[in-house]
Each structure stands twice: as structure tokens, then as C-alpha cells.
């Protein structure tokens, strides 16, 4: 899982735990306590889904869930960190950039944070490779977001644990066991009020909640002889299985219906599906106990709620477990406390273990630079002999021996050995220091390998992202404008009801509707569909209609009375109503009755009535999400 921490110039800090399956957010400042926040749908968890149809129709998070269920081929789950093409149009890091922009915009809207300079610290999963870190940095750059630091998600919870004194007076060591959707991680820390030292860290991101889900899927398809021949069916069944898995945390049996079959799962099924995880935990806990003495442990990650895994860990550790941290919010809240320059902290020393291994290749020699036992503040130095034309390379052995960087050393002399030091930069990537000969610094010249994002390529990405953001905003604005025409169309249709369905007026108006739709679509195609154009089309519409349906004088007076009348708060409520209507349309939720209410009553409606309809749409959106998605 990823975790983002955003530090604003107004001293507000937003911590975002960007998991592979869901996103969680916390906010705090010097004067505001750190707290967990909900998204604009009033949910604590936001799905990590990206949907793309074309440059005017794409979305991330809640708005993408239903589309991903209907069109799996147009969906990406979890942010891609590469420069491969998706949907034939977008590169992986560009999808990540767009998603980050959507996340930040949602946070600013829900917390009323003004547009200001954002400083971002992102916590990354321990298994992220150095190349993936580089692509993530490119995503921030392409999105125009200032990212100042990367940290690991395995370190963030200890920040919260120590900052809010979630420990007993006699406790000075703790283990965090994180069983999330994408992996199993065990971390051990020694600490006091001023110091945090990570003494142990092991992880395996090949097994997690996703493994349990896939195992349960195999059990169900075999037991009930289900043939899953397409991705859409697989996703629907997997969604039902996830809900059943959640139910089994509190009940011994869960039942649901799929293709008219009653499907049942028990806790025994879940236990059988956890065997890969328990094998990993057995090894990690054994190593933890050999490495350090711990006073207590904390469970994190959605799958830590599974009773079988809780009991398994209790038996293996045989020490008292604390449950002072919420499994959903601990990482994002810890991220907020990591911004110690903005949120007061007593902690003066922080030492985290590295989660990658790197070697240096030079003239056929291999030098071990960083290992899993290295701390993030270590500074190894090697003595090498080379010349100005020879290329040295940093290779990540924890990433299939891929070359991460190539460089040459430029010094005043190559007669003597060159002292070359290495550090881990703010983005947790290894970099060479300036070469030294007899205390005199030289320079390092980097050569491109080919996997990197080139400067001209990055500029094209910036332009593309700007274009996509502009297009979707323009579409939403146009649809709002179209609503005024649709409102009038509904009003006319309601008036026609008194004439009966076989009246000639229906036929006459159908031709007018086609003509008006043509005018509006042409307006859109020409790219000049401003408010004046829309009002001209609406006036023309009314002129044509009045010869067929005579509007009552009373209706005209009411319309004139309320045209242009609205308080600032009422206008804001109307805008929220239209925004929520758009969201529900994308989610495939029923909106016909609300649209009719808008057409018939919006002009004369009180602000309280408008807010009531907003609440109706929010509840429908919530129910729609519950049908298709649940996160453990």
C-alpha cells in the first residue's frame, strides 16, 4: 500500500494511506488534532480504481467502481508505476498523476482546504523498486504536485503510536503486524519519548487479502461447479465473496446468491484460504523473536480482523496484544505526525531500515552498497579505480538485478584510488556522492539507460494531463448547461400529459426535440457552447414550443418571479445537487425522479428542500457502492 502525506503552507497536514485496494485520509495541523476523514461520499475508504473511456469520460475512486464492474477492460486497479501504455493512450505514471490530482482535489473539497502550495510526503510499500519510485516521482512532476519526500508505510504507524502515547509506561518495544490486501509485513521498533529505532523488518507482498479472496473464489467455483468464462462474471463473484469474508469476521457462516444459486461460505473455508499467509507469518515471527525482545504487538491491515489470523498470531507470539490503533486509520494518521516541522513532536531521532539491496559494478568488481540491514541514514564509502570514460552502474539486486543508474566519475586525476560515498536521498533512492581524491571533490556525470522518463516525454505528459483535466471539467460544465434545456423539456412533457399519449402534440414536439438536440450538439462540436449560446438555444426552444403548448399566464409569472433569484448559500446547494446528480448518473443510480423534481420545483424550492434531495442522492450512491464494493 502507498501512503501520501501532504503538508500545506497554512500548516494543515493531510496524510493519505494509498493502499493497493483502498485509500484512507487523515488531516491535522498545529492547532487541529490529527483525525481520520471521510470522502465526499461519506465513506472512510475510497476504492483504488481508475476508469478510462475517452478524454472526456474518465474517473478515479468512487466514480470508477461501477464502470470497472461493467467494463473491466477499461479499468485499472491499483496505480501503475511504469511507462507502459494503457487504453492505447495513457502511460502508467500518467494514470497515477491523474489519480493523485483527483485525490488531492477531493481532500481540499471535503475539508474546505483552500488552493495553496502543497508539499507532499508519500509513504510507499516496502516492496516498491527504485525504478517504480522514479516513476512515482515523475507522476508527481507531471501532475505539478510538489513532493518533498518518500517514506515507507512500515514506519508510519510508529509515528502515531509514539506521538499520541498509545503505549503503556513500561513498554519500550513493539511489533507491528500488517496483513493488508497486497502483503504481509512484520516490523519491530525500540523507542522512547524522543527516539524511534526500527530494529526488525520483513515483508512479502506476494501474499495478502487478495490471496485469501482468490483461494475462496477457487473453493466456490469448484464446490458449486460454476463456470466463470469472462472477467465481468469473475469480478461480480469476487465482490460477493469479499462481502461474505467480511461477514465471517462476526458470524460463523455467510450466504449469498450468484446466478440463482445459493452460495455458502464458513470460517473453515477462510482458514483453509489463509495457509500461505500463516506460513509467512510463522517464519517472520520466528525471525522477529530471534532478533529482538518485544513488549507488545499491534495488528494492522484489513485482514487482521479475521479471527483465525488473530488467534494464530496470539499463539505464536504468546505476549499481550494491544489494540490501541485503528487498522484503517493508523497509517494515514501516522503520516500526519511524520511532518514534524508542521505538527509538534518530541521525537528527535528516527532510524528506519532500508527495504532494498544495491550493489556497485566497477571494472568487473562488485561492491555491496546497501542491504536490508542498512539504515536510511547510512553513508557507505568504497574505494575504486576508474577513468573518465568508464561507466559505473548501481544495480538493485532486490529487483532482478536491474540497472538503476549509470555514471562516470570526473576528477583531476585517475592515478590514485577514488573515494566514492553513497547516500539514500529524500525519495529513498540510492545516489552517489561527489567523488573524492585527496580531499578534492570531483563530479558525477549520469548516463541514461532507457527506462527513465525523458524530459521531453515528461513535458508531453504534463500537456496531456492538463488537456484531460480541462476536457472532463468542460464536459461537466456542458452537462450542467444541458440540464437547463432538459429541465424545460421535462416541464413541457409534464404539460402534455393532460392531452393524452395519442395527441398530435407529442409528434410535433418530437421533431422540435431533435432540432434542439442538434443545435446543442453542434454548439458543443464547435467548442463555443458558452452561457449565451445555451440561453439562445433555450429561447429558441421556448419560441417553438409556445405554438404547440400554451403555457398558463400564472406559470410565466412564477418563472419571472424566481428567475435570477437565489441567495449565495442556495446557489451553492443547487451546485451540489447538480454535482451529486452527475455522480449518481455515472454510478448507474436512479435519478429520474430527482430530475423531474428539478424541472418542476427547483425554481420555487427552499434551500432545505434542495438539501433534502442532495441527501437522497447521497444515500443512493452509498447503496450503489455497497452493492459492488467492500474492502477488507
Automatic annotation (TrEMBL):
GO terms for biological process, alphabetical: endoplasmic reticulum unfolded protein response
GO molecular function: ATP binding; ATP-dependent protein folding chaperone
Keywords: ATP-binding, Chaperone, Nucleotide-binding, Signal
Signal peptide: 1-15
InterPro entries per record: ATPase_NBD, Hsp_70_fam
Pfam families: HSP70
Keyword Nucleotide-binding: yes
Any single Gene Ontology cellular-component annotation: endoplasmic reticulum chaperone complex
PANTHER family in UniProt: HSC70CB, ISOFORM G-RELATED (PTHR45639), HYPOXIA UP-REGULATED PROTEIN 1 (PTHR45639:SF3)
Record protein name field: DnaK protein
Organism: Tritrichomonas foetus
Amino acid at each position: 500500500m502507498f501512503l501520501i502525506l501532504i503538508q500545506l503552507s497554512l500548516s494543515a497536514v493531510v496524510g493519505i494511506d494509498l493502499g493497493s485496494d483502498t485509500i484512507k485520509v487523515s488531516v491535522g495541523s498545529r492547532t487541529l488534532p490529527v483525525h481520520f476523514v471521510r470522502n465526499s461520499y461519506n465513506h472512510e475508504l475510497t476504492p483504488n480504481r481508475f476508469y478510462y473511456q475517452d478524454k472526456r469520460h474518465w474517473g478515479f475512486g468512487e466514480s470508477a467502481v461501477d464502470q470497472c464492474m461493467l467494463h473491466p477492460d477499461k479499468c485499472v486497479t491499483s496505480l501503475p508505476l511504469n511507462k507502459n501504455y494503457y487504453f492505447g493512450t495513457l502511460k502508467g505514471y500518467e494514470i497515477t498523476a491523474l489519480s493523485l490530482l483527483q485525490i488531492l482535489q477531493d481532500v481540499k473539497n471535503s475539508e474546505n482546504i483552500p488552493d495553496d502550495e502543497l508539499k507532499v510526503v508519500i509513504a510507499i510499500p516496502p516492496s516498491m523498486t527504485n525504478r517504480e519510485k522514479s516513476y512515482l516521482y515523475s507522476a508527481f512532476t507531471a501532475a505539478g504536485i510538489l513532493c518533498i519526500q518518500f517514506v515507507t508505510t512500515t514506519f508510519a504507524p510508529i509515528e502515531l503510536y509514539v506521538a499520541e502515547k498509545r503505549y503503556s509506561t513500561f513498554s519500550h518495544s513493539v511489533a507491528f503486524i500488517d496483513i493488508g490486501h497486497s502483503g504481509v509485513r512484520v516490523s519491530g521498533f525500540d523507542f522512547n519519548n524522543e527516539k524511534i529505532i526500527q530494529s526488525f523488518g520483513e515483508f512479502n507482498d506476494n501474499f495478502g487479502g487478495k490471496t485469501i479472496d482468490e483461494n475462496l473464489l477457487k473453493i466456490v467455483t469448484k464446490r458449486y461447479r460454476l463456470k466463470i468464462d469472462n472477467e465481468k462474471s469473475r469480478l461480480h463473484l469476487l465482490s460477493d465473496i469479499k462481502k461474505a469474508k467480511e461477514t465471517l469476521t462476526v458470524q460463523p457462516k455467510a450466504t449469498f446468491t450468484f446466478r440463482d444459486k445459493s452460495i455458502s461460505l464458513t470460517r473453515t473455508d477462510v482458514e483453509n484460504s489463509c495457509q500461505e499467509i500463516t506460513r509467512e507469518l510463522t517464519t517472520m515471527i520466528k525471525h522477529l523473536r530471534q532478533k529482538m525482545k518485544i513488549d507488545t504487538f499491534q495488528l494492522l491491515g484489513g485482514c487482521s480482523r479475521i479471527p483465525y489470523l488473530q488467534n494464530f498470531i496470539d499463539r505464536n507470539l504468546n505476549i499481550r496484544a494491544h489494540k490501541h490503533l485503528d487498522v484503517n486509520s493508523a497509517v494515514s494518521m501516522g503520516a500526519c505526525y511524520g511532518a514534524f516541522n508542521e505538527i509538534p513532536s518530541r521525537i528527535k531521532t528516527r532510524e528506519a531500515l532500508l527495504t532494498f539491496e544495491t550493489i556497485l559494478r566497477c571494472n568487473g568488481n562488485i561492491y555491496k552498497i546497501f542491504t536490508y540491514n542498512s539504515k536510511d541514514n547510512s553513508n557507505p564509502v568504497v574505494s575504486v579505480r576508474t577513468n573518465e570514460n568508464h561507466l559505473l552502474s548501481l544495480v538493485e539486486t532486490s529487483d532482478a538485478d536491474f540497472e538503476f543508474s549509470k555514471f562516470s566519475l570526473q576528477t583531476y586525476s585517475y592515478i590514485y584510488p577514488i573515494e566514492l560515498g553513497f547516500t539514500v536521498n529524500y525519495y529513498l533512492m540510492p545516489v552517489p556522492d561527489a567523488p573524492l581524491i585527496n580531499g578534492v571533490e570531483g563530479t558525477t556525470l549520469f548516463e541514461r539507460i532507457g527506462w527513465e522518463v525523458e524530459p521531453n516525454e515528461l513535458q508531453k505528459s504534463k500537456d496531456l494531463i492538463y488537456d484531460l483535466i480541462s476536457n472532463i471539467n468542460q464536459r461537466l460544465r456542458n452537462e450542467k448547461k444541458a440540464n437547463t434545456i432538459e429541465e424545460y423539456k421535462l416541464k413541457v412533457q409534464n404539460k402534455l400529459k393532460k392531452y393524452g399519449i395519442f395527441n398530435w402534440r407529442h409528434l410535433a414536439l418530437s421533431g422540435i426535440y431533435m432540432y434542439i438536440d442538434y443545435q446543442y450538439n453542434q454548439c458543443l462540436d464547435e467548442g463555443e457552447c458558452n452561457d449565451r449560446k445555451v440561453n439562445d438555444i433555450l429561447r429558441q426552444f421556448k419560441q417553438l414550443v409556445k405554438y404547440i403548448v400554451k403555457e398558463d399566464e400564472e406559470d410565466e409569472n412564477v418563472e419571472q418571479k424566481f428567475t435570477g433569484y437565489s441567495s449565495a448559500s442556495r446557489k451553492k446547494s443547487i451546485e451540489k445537487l447538480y454535482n451529486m446528480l452527475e455522480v449518481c448518473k455515472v454510478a448507474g443510480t436512479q435519478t429520474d425522479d430527482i430530475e423531474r423534481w428539478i424541472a418542476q420545483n427547483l425554481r420555487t424550492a427552499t434551500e432545505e428542500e434542495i438539501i433534502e434531495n442532495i441527501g437522497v442522492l447521497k444515500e443512493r450512491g452509498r447503496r450503489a457502492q455497497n452493492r459492488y464494493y467492500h474492502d477488507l
